[in-house]
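## retry 2 of 3
previous attempt timed out at serialization; input unchanged, resubmitting
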Amino acid sequence: LIDQIPRHQYIANGDMESLTGWTATGCTATAETGTILEGAQSVKLNGVTGPYANAYYSRRFQSASFADGIEYTAAAWVYIDSWTGPALNYRGLYLQRVDQTDATTVLDFSYDRLTGFTTRGEWVRLETKIVVPPGRTDYIDIRLYAPDAVVFWDAVQVVAQDSLSQLATDQATIIDNIVAHCQDSAVGKGHINIACAPAASGVILDR
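## retry succeeded, writing output
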């Protein structure tokens, strides 16, 4: 049953069935019903004149604070219909971590590339990851870049790596914590009414 719990999606409207909450910068974004990966529509990005432009379609969410930190993975599908030149630094799918205090300072970033060698005329999956350090509640921006081209984006997801780290802990407590984590709404999970309160075993482990 636990294996059937879906991983939490940290951004709304990543399926592009609605474009609410997304913002276009330096490009034109429109709903597309002809070229789609899944569902009823994708988003079409175009209107960029000249290569190496900092043009993109984006949205933001704020990370919760985790004692061990957290790693976010973004994945998205892109379809290149025509191509003249790349976006800034060949960016495709891009994540950046922005300071929790001023909501402006970029602390880290990562991206998967769109280049002249990226397959055209079919859907291609891009993926990138970023880590929020322990105790931080930084903002995460996801950007779908718009090269000097006509591109479509669909099925965008941001999910978190599920993990627990426990040092010198009784193995019964480790089991109890794992069961609780699998039902923790703070990491996007639903309660499935599994109770677990085992007695201490006396076996101390690092996990």
